[in-house]
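ok trying this again, last paste got cut off
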Amino acid sequence: MDYDVIIIGAGPGGIYAAYELTKEDKGLKVGVFEAGKKLEERKCPIDGDKIKTCINCESCSIMSGFGGAGAFSDGKYNITNDFGGTLHEYVGKEEAIRLMEYVDSINVAHGGAGTKLYTTANSSFKKLCRQNDLILLDASVRHLGTDINYIVLGKLYDELKDKVDFRFRTPVTKIDVIDGGYMVTAGAESFTCKKCIVSVGRSGSKWMEEICSALDIPTESNRVDLGVRVEIPAELFSHITDELYESKIVYKTEKFEDKVRTFCMNPRGSVVTENTNGIVTVNGHSYEDPAKQTDMTNFALLVAKHFSYPFKDSNGYGESIARLSNMLGGGVIVQRFGDLIRGRRTNYKRLADSFVVPTLKAEPGDLSLVLPKRILDGIIEMIYALDKIAPGTANDDTLLYGVEVKFYNMEVKVNERLETKYSGLYMIGDGSGVTHSLSHASASGVFVARDILKSMQA
């Protein structure tokens, strides 16, 4: 065998699996195959001047490379079983929390010392939410910030690079089951291993479907989250973000009884774009360094849509809506909340006259021409509900960017060890459909690494 373990994907799951496998010198030969670039080489060419829109790079530096899609995120590690995935259903609730706390300790030891750990425990804000038909989910959250998150990843890579055989810009095209292990094909080369960990993240959703189909690994249709990113003056939410930083708030709509939730809250942050399979969508970042902070806070409002027979392509549904937004706006569309309520398009003049200055240069437009009515009605209801606990959220000048889409992989059938029907072939992280967050994905990497070490000692 060329390797004892091959890890496909250098996102959070792959990184922490490699870390755990090589933490103590067990003499294991570990290879990490990553379609993207090294961390220091990852740079989106969009500069707002010469290049203003996505040019569809062969490997998207925002979504792929060392650190995965989370490399340029705001570095929030939520320690909770209430959201972020279903890892606890496989490994147990207490073990899942222990794994996430262990990942947190690694981050703190690799540059995250001094960052704050927030918690919803004993927060009076829970009562305020309940009084206004909102539910605040329980969590502790370590906020690294986009800047410190990058430092942590850099230190992890420095520690791993001499222990692990990293192969960047090496997309895997095929996995074959062979006698005693697996053969991984990348371009014209093939490599063998005893154990294989697949951790390709959200951007690898289509690839994962193809691999599972080729190996006849059962999968189930998952969901897609659709919505907008809201941007408001930071002081409107400061009484919440100063105490909790990241607040996951859920609302059940009166009209359709759909659940709308806040997601990825970025106090004093910036709205940014991301590219998934050639589709430009919206996201948000925030920084630990005060010099990089803004006067604005942004967060997503998302509605989860689950599909049943005969429809199976939940990601395709989300992609079609995102493509429509790209078609109408050339990328991301921005609209004032007041214009949306009045049924009119935001134009450059209305945007310029707004008291809220956008942190992302986006095309003014009309989100009602993009998002389905049911989803848009739910978002509007949620904004009015949030206005009760954070007055000013429903102001006319509140900005809505669209669309925000969270694509989920089809859920791969794995056992309690996160192993497929093939012994020694693990599927972890967001690519497996089991996790949906940095903390859960990282924890799943640690879990399978320990399982491999245990099996090799037996």
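PB: full thing came through this time. The mean pLDDT is 93.
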